């Protein structure tokens, strides 16, 4: 069992594999028959997370928030990953390095201090463009400037990659989080300690939710909340608004899926946004 797994009640063998899973359907339907089948997809993923990680004494009350669409109780959410850009991610790792120093000064083992949750650090917020694109050597020149200006920071990040467990680094020169394929970083289904469960994550960049396209719940957060999740603590939440959108027709030429998603996220009062959607989408 994972040392972070609390609830054992609904752990079951996953047919055709040597893995286990947590049966959220059984847990929800034990509270109200047929309730799981009525839940939206997002709530089903949140339910699995609760069955997997919630304190057993709190499980029914927390699942009831999802079943009955209530918002009178905070419930814990334990994301499987943390994705950070280098500015906020580095700050969190500096805190952990400082904690290692404090433990070592008290005679403890500093190597015991590690992120509990898988942490992916993308070095992308340090580039300042000094050479324009018309220069055929612009990329190499800008990278050289970036390395010179951030030598100490990059050295620390490289140290973190080998010093800490559960930390991986996408180094400078590979693009920003807007361009790096965040879907590529997601396993979609996590497999750890003999248990298969949905991938979920928090990230310190506004583009973190791009991976939602894979059915992975991903939420953008601040540095302190990301650090809290790194240390294995839950991100507390109340049931968010879960809205389904059905689009018919086809995209206008030159309009990307991202354009449509960004338009949808601006919706507050549907009427006021209707013209914008018509521009992006042509109905048959």
Tertiary shape: globular
Element string (H = helix, E = strand)? EEHHHHEEHEHHEEEEEHEEHHE
Structural class computed from helices and strand pairing: alpha/beta
Return the CATH topology of the largest domain: Aconitase, domain 3
Query: In the CATH classification, which architecture of the largest domain applies?
Result: 2-Layer Sandwich
Count of folded domains: 3
Distance between the termini: 53 Å
Could you state the oligomeric state of the chains shown? single chain
| Radius of gyration computed on alpha carbons | 22 Å
Largest sheet: 5 strands, parallel
Name given to the CATH homologous superfamily of the largest domain: Aconitase, domain 3
Mean pLDDT: 87
């Amino acid at each position: 069992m994972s040392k972070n797994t609390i609830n054992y009640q609904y752990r079951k063998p996953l047919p055709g594999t040597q893995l286990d899973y947590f049966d959220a359907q059984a847990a929800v339907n034990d509270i109200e028959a047929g309730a799981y089948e009525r839940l939206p997809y997002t709530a089903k993923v949140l339910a699995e997370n609760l069955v997997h990680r919630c304190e057993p004494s709190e499980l029914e009350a927390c699942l009831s928030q999802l079943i009955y669409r209530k918002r009178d109780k905070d419930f814990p959410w334990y994301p499987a990953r943390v994705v950070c850009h280098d500015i906020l991610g580095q700050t969190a790792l500096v805190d952990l390095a400082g904690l290692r120093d404090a433990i070592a000064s008290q005679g403890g083992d500093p190597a015991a201090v590690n992120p509990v949750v898988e942490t992916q650090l993308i070095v992308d917020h340090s580039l300042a463009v000094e050479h324009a694109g018309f220069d055929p050597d612009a990329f190499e020149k800008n990278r050289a400037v970036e390395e010179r200006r951030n030598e100490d920071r990059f050295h620390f990040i490289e140290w973190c990659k080998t010093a800490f467990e559960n930390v991986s680094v996408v180094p400078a020169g590979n693009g920003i989080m807007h361009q790096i394929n965040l879907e590529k970083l997601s396993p979609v289904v996590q497999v750890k300690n003999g248990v298969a469960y949905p991938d979920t994550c928090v990230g310190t960049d506004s583009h973190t939710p791009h991976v939602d396209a894979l059915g992975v719940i991903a939420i953008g957060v601040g540095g302190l909340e990301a650090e809290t999740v790194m240390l294995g603590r839950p991100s507390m939440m109340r049931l968010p608004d879960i809205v389904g959108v059905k689009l018919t027709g086809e995209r206008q030429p030159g309009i990307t899926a991202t354009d449509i998603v960004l338009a949808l996220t601006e919706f507050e009062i549907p009427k006021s946004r209707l013209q914008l959607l018509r521009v992006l989408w042509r109905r048959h």
